[in-house]
Amino acid sequence: MMLYRFREALEDSQQAVRLDDRFMKGHLREGKCHLSLGNGMAASRCFQKVLELDRSNREAQQEKKNAAVLLEYERMADFAFDKRDFRKVVFCMDRALALAPACHRFKILKAECLALLGRYPEAQSVASDILRMDSTNADALYVRGLCLYYEDCIDKAVQFFVQALKMAPDHEKARLACRNAKALKAKKEEGNKAFKNNNYKFAYLLYTEALAIDPNNIKTNSKLYCNRATAGAKLKKLNEAIEDCTSAIKLDESYIKAYLRRAQCYMDTEQYEEAVRDYEKVYQTEKTSEHKQLLKTAQLELKKSKRKDYYKVLGVGKNATEDEIKKAYRKRALMHHPDRHSAATPEVQKEEEKKFKEVGEAFTILSDPKKKTRYDSGHDLEDDGGFDGGDIDANNIFRAFFGGHNGGFSFDSNSDSGPFFFQFG
Description:
This protein is mostly helical. The chain contains 21 helices and two strands. The chain has helices at about 5-20, 25-35, 40-55, 60-80, 85-100, 105-115, 120-135, 140-150, 155-165, 170-195, 200-210, 220-235, 240-250, 255-270, 270-285, 290-305, 310-315, 320-335, 345-365, 370-375, 395-400; strands spanning about 410, 420-425. Strands 1-2 form a two-stranded antiparallel sheet. The protein is elongated and about 125 Å long.
């Protein structure tokens, strides 16, 4: 027992009590060996035998209480494991191991839960200690494989699972983990192949199937979510891609690739504040020139988004040609011209006059190459008064564009074609 060779000590103490059933010290030592090895029931029976021989034996009384405490921690751990409360299991096993330091079963359960909690180095350490003493321990081999599996080293993990199954062919956990590992690897590789072949729809489906294989594999699933987000972005499923990136980040808060992918999706959906937040996170983590430029671009787009969007005012895209801008101005200017709404309520007239002015402002900026360039680059957004409308006279712009006092046409409210009909001169 002093050499921590509890199994040999157990055999000796059992032989001692077989020779003399009333040998209290033999029963007491047998109970202590059982307790150290984690067998609370057998330990309790031994201590009870001592108390039957000597009711006042304080050592037996205390050790019997310890055996009861051990059994209670074991019961609590089993209940917590079924509820997937792995932290509680580790807590219970730490206390149980204080009473049963030689119990491999408790150590393995603790190591397995540490792996499930993502505390892989600790789990590996416990499993390695057991394997140094017993290289054929199937449970320890399983835990080593589990750690590698959860660290996305699937090929090495499979090797350990196979070795564990050789030692214990009925090891159900090793068999299930081996099957999951092989399926996850195959499905992920198939998805990557489909993506490289530009078959984004099929890749998206394969990544979805892979994510359903094992919800406990945090590291691999984080990559799968990011991969599916990339495929989703190619399919223009930008909101779904954002959700997938968020899921990836929840699983791995240090996953830079997921932040970058989400930030790009935010940029594509014009959610610039969110994009800036993600790019700031990336730049704080990796201060590269590329990340700095991405952050500056997002900050500029955010700044630009807070001003009046003249492209939206005219109803054209940001890559609209000069002719498209002119056509859009013609349409919007006629639509909101005050003369067209002379019979409307004062509120409507005021609103249409405001829109008419905005259309004039937009045309003034976007029809002038220099002003358009400055506007597109976000230069002097606050300081350039022309961007805020300044002294722009919408009526002068209208007359200059259409010609004549009213552009060479009159508004006819009696036309059958609508409330207002444009008669061009």
